[in-house]
Structure formats: C-alpha cells, structure tokens
Amino acid sequence: MFHFYAMLSRMKYICRWGLMRNTRKETLSEHSFETAVIAHALAVLRNTRFGGHVSPERAALLALYHDATEILTGDLPTPVKYFNPQIRSAYREVETVAQNKLLSLLPEDLKPSYESVFTAGKEGDKELLPLVKAADKLSAVIKCMEEKGMGNSEFIKAEASLRQAVSDLHLPEADCFVTEFLPSYALTLDEQD
C-alpha cells in the first residue's frame, strides 16, 4: 500500500496566511491550483506573445506541486521563512527532508517522474521556474485583492509588497497578466460578463 496520493489530498487541510486575519481561509490546495492555472497562462503568454518555446503543461505541473512539502512542514509564514539566511537555509533542508518523505510514499517505478517535479531537474525547467515564482506571487496578490474587497485592510501592505515583487521579476508575461487579467479579479460575477 502506498500513501503518496492520499497524503497529497491533505493539502486541503493546510491553511495559508497564518499570521494574517482572514475573512476567508485559503487552503494550500486552492493556492496550488490557482498557481498552476496562472503558471500555465504565463507560459502560454511567453510562447504566444514573447517568442518563447516553453511547455505550459510542465509549468502547470511544477506549480501544482510547488508547495507540496507544506503538507508535512505546514505553511511557514514568509516573514519567518526569510527572516535571515540561516533560517532560510534551515528551511530548505526541512523542505528537502519533506520531499524525500513524500517520494518515499511512492512505488520505486513512479519515483523518477515525481523527483523531477519536486526538484525541477528536467531540461527547460530553469526557464519555467521564474514563471512559477511569478504565478505563486500573483496568486498571493489575488488573495490580497479578495481580502481587501471584503473590507479587510490587513492585506493592503502585503498586496503592495507582492505587486512590487512581481514587477521586480521583470517578466513581460507577468506584466501582461497584471495589466490584462488581474483587474478582473476585483470585479463581481455580473461585472465579468
């Protein structure tokens, strides 16, 4: 009996934004799905508008699993995770242990397929990782926008900081997403019609 997929299903129990007052909780499962959708979109934009030749499917896959280790580690708040280089280094080690634990829950013949997802080791992944990082941050911006839209001012500074972080990536695909698609997230269903 192998527990890998059952363990992944526990993403729905891991809540994000632990240090922030939330009007609606966001699970790791929700965040991973949204990040995958956005990473796919950014890769499509790169290929369609900016002369790229990347795999949107691979971008989505990497994004889908980008925080899977948090099933075991929990969602360490960003201010803690990046407090200093020693904590960041120690957290990377914890993530590696968690990756290995997740991989140990698979049969041997399936492990290679998932190792490359967790380590982003395939050729071409280097070009995709900035897109996944941007998608991760854009998903967080969307959460901040949703919270602000529900009257929660707790997320105002986080949104500004995350928007700046996306801009600092200097990715035309991310800039395009911010300009053309992000504003829709602040609209009601009727306004999106």
From TrEMBL:
<dbReference type="Pfam" id="PF12917">
    <property type="entry name" value="YfbR-like"/>
</dbReference>
<dbReference type="GO" id="GO:0002953">
    <property type="term" value="F:5'-deoxynucleotidase activity"/>
</dbReference>
<feature type="domain" description="HD/PDEase">
    <location>
        <begin position="24"/>
        <end position="150"/>
    </location>
</feature>
<keyword id="KW-0378">Hydrolase</keyword>
<protein>
    <submittedName>
        <fullName>5'-deoxynucleotidase</fullName>
        <ecNumber>3.1.3.89</ecNumber>
    </submittedName>
</protein>
<dbReference type="InterPro" id="IPR003607">
    <property type="entry name" value="HD/PDEase_dom"/>
</dbReference>
<dbReference type="InterPro" id="IPR039356">
    <property type="entry name" value="YfbR/HDDC2"/>
</dbReference>
